Amino acid sequence: MTRSDILEKYPKAGDNLISILHDMQNLSEWNYLSKEDLQAAADYLELPFSFVHGVATFYTMFSLEPRGKKVIRVCQSPPCHLTGATEVAAELSRILGIGFGETTPDRLFSMEMTSCLGVCGVAPAIMINDEVYGNLTADRLKEIIAEKRREK
Amino acid sequence: MKKRLDVLICGGAACIASHSHDFKARLIEVVKDKGLDEEINIIETGCMGPCELGPVMVVYPDGAFYIRLKPEHAEPIVEEHFLKGRPVEELLWHTPEARKIVEEKRQVPFFEKQRKVVLTNCGRIDPENLNEYIGHDGYLALGHCLTEMTPDAVIETLTASGLRGRGGAGFPTGLKWKLTRQAAGDVKYVVCNADEGDPGAFMDRAILEGDPHSVIEGMTIAGYAVGAANGFVYVRAEYPLAVRRLRNALDQARQAGLLGENILESGFSFDLEIRIGAGAFVCGEETALMASVEGHRGMPRPKPPFPSQSGLWGKPTLINNVETLANVRHIIMRGADWFAGMGTAKSKGTKVFALSGNVNNTGLVEVPMGITLREVVYEIGGGIPGDKALKAVQTGGPSGGCIPAEQLDTPIDYESLAELGSIMGSGGLIVLDEDSCMVNMAKFFLEFCVEESCGQCSPCRIGLKQMYEILKRITAGKGEEKDIAQLRQMSETIKSTSLCGLGQSAPNPVLSTLTYFMDEYEAHIQEKRCPAMVCTDLITYTVLADKCVGCTACARKCPVNAISGEVKKVHVIDQDTCIHCGACFQACKFAAIERR
Amino acid sequence: MKLEDLKKIREKHQKDMILRDGDARVRVVVGMGTSGIAAGARETLRTFLEEIEKRNVADVIVTQAGERGLSSHEPIVTVFEKSKPNIVYGNVTAEVARKIVAEHIVNGSPLSDYVLEVSE
Fold first, then answer.
1. CATH 3.40.30.10: does it fit domain A70-151?
2. Distance from the Cα of residue B498 to its chain's centroid
3. Do A81 and B444 touch (CB under 8 A)?
4. pLDDT tens, B114-139?
5. What is the value of pTM for the model shown?
6. How many domains, in total, are found in chain C?
7. Closest approach of B577 to chain C, Cα-based (Å)
8. What is the DSSP letter of B106?
9. What do you get for the CA distance between the two ends of chain B, in Å?
10. In sequence order, which residues have a C-beta less than 8 Å from that of residue B594 and are 6 or more positions away?
11. How many residue contacts between A and C have a Cβ separation below 8 Å?
């Protein structure tokens, strides 16, 4: 699928902007929105570039900087915090060698903080792209990262 | 004609004493009425054995063994079993092994004590199978509304039920529907708020993933009632499975003629679209949500005008929470009185809560309003892990407050929680045990709001940040006497001048902890001590001279070289260099490091 | 469709119809809400399918459902059986799934250690 394929899926109405931005970001190998992406959306929907830029920068799930192929979001909300989110974050940092807001040198993983993922019953939890992992322990984390590396 | 069924009714003394003859007479009557007396052989036999289960009956060739029969069972048995070949399960006796498990009372109170309404289908039906939903009474309520009820009648039923918005504010749903219906204009919208952003809340996610059609049905009924032809479900992007299942359900409903043009051939048309969020908690606020649906930055705007007057693209818009909408079909099918029969005087029906934190059974519980917090935490939640004491239960997420242990017998309803300085909120219940620091908790929620603030208005953008800075100082051991008064004063200002609900309620966790846990604030400020030993900067580590054997384990672990000492001599921690990380405490095998 | 058609579909698919009218004796329902998936329910589902195929158990169907709510005990699996009570199991890892197939489904003996709820 290309950028134009995505745009053509949607009627030319401004309320499709966020869906379009999501699709373009998901298409990108590095999980981000390039300047060209924003411009294409602006042109298609006949909106000012500044407006589209404003929308993209308002929402935390959009990134204007390239990230890893797999974005790891670590939940920092109270239920996860109470059950060990700090240790999870520390362990991930240890395994990957990066901190929050950073990407591994091989560009495979990025680590970010996130607000509640909505799986508090199996806290502590993380999300890697679209998949959620709960009941995390140091061993589980090692397994998950190893599995993700194999996936490529 | 050979009889196709042999029905043996026990005529033993015990069964007769249990009025088996009344049942037998009624059975013969019904069989005759249905014209089946030529095909069915009804015989009375001698004692069959399990007398305490009488009156009993066996049907051959099926071998179905019925127990505890009453005359009113005759008709269903004839209808379902004799005519359609489906034995009536509820009246059958089950095999010994299964009975054993039942007798051993293998029931966790977690399920037993709940009253499932909205969660009825969750975990039982396949959410990707429309037929299963229909098989469990799905879309019957919609059918009833479209064929037997006027829009006003639907609104009256909702109003009479007493249903209040389950998203947190608790606004009477019937009234909201009425206001939207009454608003001028031909174009109206129905919006479902599925942007469940409250930390600790996951009720709406479970409903969308487990029973998506119930929400679609609720929205369609709402559309009919208020006069809308289109709707949107706004789902947060952190819920990809919910989006997938909902999308699938919409396709199925459209294909089956249950959504879209001319629904159930009634002449009423209504369709829905999904809109996805992108990681902004503020978009759970209705005006910010609408801005997001329109493709803008999710910035709230002042109210009035309220969405029912002027919402999406300036048109009257009904916005309801997922759980509110999921209740609609039940109220239509079983009646307003049934719903109003559950709960308390001003808070009717059931509520789904999400239990998380320091509690044994985490997950979703649906209980009638009015149940106490103690029942929820201890009987359903199974109590606190490690048998620790409960310190507080946080309700309402970042807009709510903490209910301390002394208030645990408060019945849960909108009014009583507000009286205690908290709110019902969307349903998140975070349990905090004795090892939690309430000042740290307040700081945590405030940090959340600071990050999620849209930045439009000064009280929220600047005020919350300043409050957060104060709390950071307090938890770092740099609190001052005037901080408490300042926190209170700022809270007041921010609450009364913020543009939207996020700012207006953000100070609540601080105010609530100041009310119930002032002693913890005072310890942090005056004694520079964290009683729960959570705030690392306030924990002092000292070497106990009489226990230290000079093994140097602590000195080697210390990341800032704050510990000095020779081998086999007592070590000393330099308090000025110490960063309070606790590595030495973990490393010491001789319990020679004191932590205060 | 009309309302009457809806009612006909309802009749056909009412509770436990799949078991009463169909060839299946047992229906295994694996909770596949995000909580369950986050706790490993996909592997549980896969294991049930593999084990049933391996043992050639013909009269069992495996389906999915949303979450029942007890997140702390996920993955959760419900076993529906003709003429027997329904049993809800908790903490069903791949290993437990194999045991359920062998002991409960094939040999008729539920695993009481993992039972959360029994309903008739």
1. yes
2. 28
3. yes
4. 899 999 999 888 899 999 999 999 99
5. 0.84
6. 1
7. 42
8. -
9. 92
10. B541, B542, B543, B544
11. 29
